[in-house]
Design brief:
Layout: H1 2-35
Length: about 40
């Protein structure tokens, strides 16, 4: 039962962390795209 509670705790911590990292990642990409606009002719 201890292993289960440990897994649950890690999952509860990891899920928001993954969400935050994903959001920061996309914000970074958006910032880079704005900073260096791609000109397609």
């Amino acid at each position: 039962m201890n292993a289960f509670s440990e897994t649950l705790r890690v999952t509860v911590i990891a899920y928001p962390a993954i969400f935050v990292v994903n959001a920061v990642f996309w914000l970074l990409i958006a910032a880079l795209v704005k900073a260096f606009p791609v000109k397609e002719e």
